[in-house]
Amino acid sequence: MLKKRPVWMLALPIVALVSLAGGVLLHPGLTNPPVRRTNSESIVVQWKRRADSPVCITMSPKGSSFATVGRDGTVSFYNKDGRELWKRRVAGANNALIAKNGQSVLVYSKLNPLYQTVSFFLGNGRLLWKHHVDGGVWCGAVSPDGTRVAVTTGKRYIYVYRPDPRRPKFKRWQLEGIGHSVAFSPNNRRLMIGTWQESQLACYNTDGTFQWKTQHNTENQYNLQASADGATIMGILPGKQSNPEIELGLWNSEGEQLWARKINGFDGRALVSPTSQYVAASFATALPGDSNMIERKVAVYKNNGDLLWEKGGLFFGPRLVALSPTGSSVICWDGANSLYNINSKGKMLSKMKFGGVIDKIVTSEDGHIILVYCKGWLYALHVG
């Protein structure tokens, strides 16, 4: 049970994606794709450049700096215009995180116990610090002010770093399970951690002081999104195809559950709007009698749990990418080469089609920048 005590609210990136004036096809052969500015709600290409099959793409919280990690561990760092500022090779690296304004970059090997070192680079490319951790790294996060970094490991540890160029330091403590997701509170003072094996959500101060936790009788990995206004937390147990049961739950800032819903499905994803008015979710369901026939849907709910609309099926399999701040539209990926904008009534407003299968998508904290990797090209898209 969730202990009823005041908690901070985690502000995860929620993308304010709004309608396009019409479908746009992005051709990978164009070095400068056409930019069409139709209104304040359009999505335009900010820049694009070649990228050699990165295993990770990432950006700073506001989308002012970008980075990719190549298959050989090469980290490339770009400015807001897509110009490469520096490149460094880190043995075993397959993930990176960028602090506010690109002031520092954390590089590590995710889910690879052979490489148990995290590396910190300054924004100018200078190596600041390398630190060995106990166990393979599972996940990481950077605080909103850019002064702290947290990583979790397979030995159930969490490390909280202060990569200060004058005196870098860290603190660690042990969790009850393996931390598979972690993020800082908006005031940079607390951490929300989702754990596996002992499935729970737990809240700690950055000095390791325990605050509260939820507990579940399952080994599913419990994921969390929270509203930017600090009013609600959205939790989801995404389900597995071997155990197709998704659990959604919404809590208020006092830790009281507002509503809960179970869905017969798997591959669940959920987002709560920054204003806490809407919750969007996408999920997959195997048809009865044929586990190879997968139906996918996206749904939007009010903050009281009432269903507003649902769209999808066998011939349109949406995967949730983003929910607008007002809940007026969602951006979905079709699992192939297109992004779709769907309004609050389930009407398809627009479509953005790329010249190949979309491989990776990340978004900025404020929702104005989307970074997409597709068929050898890295695209930075600007919203609004």
Task: Explain the overall architecture.
- With 384 residues, the chain is mainly β.
- The protein has a domain at 15-47 and 229-384: Methylamine Dehydrogenase, Chain H (7 Propeller), CATH 2.130.10.10.
- Helices cover 0% and strands 53% of the residues.
- It has strands spanning 24-26, 43-50, 56-59, 66-69, 74-78, 84-89, 95-98, 104-108, 117-122, 127-132, 137-142, 149-153, 157-162, 169-174, 178-184, 190-196, 200-205, 210-215, 223-226, 232-237, 246-252, 257-263, 266-272, 278-287, 290-302, 307-313, 319-323, 329-333, 338-343, 348-354, 358-363, 369-374, 377-383.
- The strands form 8 sheets. Strands 1-30-29-28-27 form a 5-stranded mixed sheet, with no helix packed on it. The chain has a 4-stranded antiparallel sheet with strand order 2-33-32-31, with no helix packed on it.
- A hairpin with a 4-residue loop joins strand 28 (329-333) and strand 29 (338-343).
